[in-house]
Specification:
By secondary structure, the protein is mostly helical. It is built from nine helices and no strands. Helix 3 packs antiparallel against helix 4. It starts with a helix and ends with a helix.
Length: 191
């Protein structure tokens, strides 16, 4: 599967060697699952955890629920519209301000990041990471805390913080690929 995926990427001018100093190694040579297979397995497990456990802890996905029930997605999202837009504007402004504080190595790596097609950046960073760590992992953490400790909203906040830290730490391997060896400044900025 890994060779097929790399060939597909190359055919569509998405050659990984354009983005990384060294192309990813084939992790499936020993007959075991390769990197793409592992990612899809983790994603499937995270989605399953989110779907299976979210009702027990009161977490919802209103747009998907509306779509499944053949109801208006717009009506389902209406209560979230104003808070979402406000949070998006504030978050975007913070990202712009935070970018100005980026270490020089991170700013220099931006050219390689920007060379990745937008669809790759959106689908992985915008969708896959959220499904893995917010819908799957965070929901699992809340469920475990409620199951073994107490049903308290404080556990939701603990799960949000823990999943955010794991989310941040999960970006360190990509930082190594893009900027090389990490120092304390880069680690602090990425996390």
């Amino acid at each position: 599967v890994n060779r097929q995926a790399l060939e597909l990427l190359r055919r569509h001018r998405l050659d990984p060697s354009r983005f990384f100093p060294e192309p990813p190694r084939d992790l499936g040579r020993d007959g075991g699952p390769d990197l793409v297979d592992r990612l899809f397995l983790l994603l499937a497990l995270a989605v399953w955890a989110g779907v299976a456990l979210s009702p027990a802890v009161g977490l919802r996905a209103p747009a998907f629920e509306a779509a499944v029930m053949r109801q208006s997605i717009v009506n389902a999202l209406r209560p979230q519209l104003v808070p979402g837009v406000v949070a998006g504007i504030v978050g975007g402004a913070m990202l712009i301000a935070f970018w100005r504080l980026a270490p020089p190595q991170i700013q220099a790596a931006q050219e390689r990041v920007a060379a990745m097609p937008l669809i790759v950046r959106v689908l992985y960073g915008g969708v896959t990471e959220e499904l893995l760590l917010r819908w799957g992992f965070m929901t699992l953490l809340v469920w475990l805390a409620w199951r073994f400790f107490a049903r308290a909203s404080a556990w939701v906040w603990v799960a949000i913080v823990v999943s955010a830290l794991v989310f941040a730490l999960g970006h360190l391997p990509a930082a190594v690929l893009f900027v090389g060896p990490l120092n304390a400044t880069i680690i602090a900025y990425v996390t």
